[in-house]
Give the backbone structure.
Amino acid sequence: MKKEISSAVIKRLPRYYRYLGELLEEGVERISSGELSEKMGVTASQIRQDLNNFGGFGQQGYGYNVNYLYKEMSKILGIDNNHNIIIVGAGNLGQAIANYSNFAKRGFIINAIFDNNPDIVGKEVGDMKIMDTNELADYVMNNHVDIAALAIPKVESTVIAQELVSLGVKAFWNFSHIDLNLPEDVVVENVHLSESLMRLSYNLTNKEKTFL
Amino acid sequence: MKKEISSAVIKRLPRYYRYLGELLEEGVERISSGELSEKMGVTASQIRQDLNNFGGFGQQGYGYNVNYLYKEMSKILGIDNNHNIIIVGAGNLGQAIANYSNFAKRGFIINAIFDNNPDIVGKEVGDMKIMDTNELADYVMNNHVDIAALAIPKVESTVIAQELVSLGVKAFWNFSHIDLNLPEDVVVENVHLSESLMRLSYNLTNKEKTFL
């Protein structure tokens, strides 16, 4: 029986991966939980607890082998395999995502981008030609798609997401400002930029009250 | 003494605001916590608990007055006042943020965008001309800046953030793939797109294991 990992832990995993990658680049071969703790600004006990969810990886008196932990973390995150991504919506945000070269380094391969605006269909973004959204179903039936990124207005995203689910897409990276209500076996990761900005506003407003 | 609000609650606040806005658009004047709960997919008790952090707003047997709660929520979030934003970095992502018209509706006013690439300085993004990053300090000294959005490579963002802090900027919307270590009275909201994608990968990988 697989242990249920809390979403707080899951949220922290990519940050471990990022720090381990930086350590590798700096040529660090091993690190104690104490040193990693100082670098990341979390307690050593938190790090040990988080990693213990997946089996530990540390050795008393030795610390963590950076390269080994980095590789294990990539397996845990599922980024030891490539993921094929399509983007629906080639507005500013869709194009920004398409042009983000960092994703490919982590095995996130963007294969196609779609839009329903005839003025931009056929134009190039990165090394892709923007395809017409009416070719989307055909494309998904004939190509392996792991993840669909939705960078379209919220009125369209519900319909498109449901269509993609019916075609077998199991993961959505949702930039539309709406909660997609999709079947239980479909995963959704939301990036709601307006909400992020509102949280910043909340924290700014309340920090000001504290520091006045 | 102000009560400390947990980050989990803060994370949910913009979502309440979004749903209340949608209800208002649909002409709904009041709603019970039960109905709101069903709409949002959280328990009614969670809603009551969350809102009780700020004084409640509900009335037994009446429910919530949508318009009143929407306005109170905007005060809580600090978006009843405008915020002046600058963007550092006019690459794809910086330009996407600059062109996002939804932010202005919530009082987030983007006033200037900077880049250090001479090929794009002077070009227009939305109704702004991209300014040279070497004009940044001057600009911040002569204009009121509430929030700086950082859409630049991580090597630059640490230096730029520290410079902006020394000029009095108190809030950062950080898209750079690095943790900014800034003084305690400065607030940072991170949008790490690669990490979001890794969380999606984690959930996809582990969901697949569950549903096999």
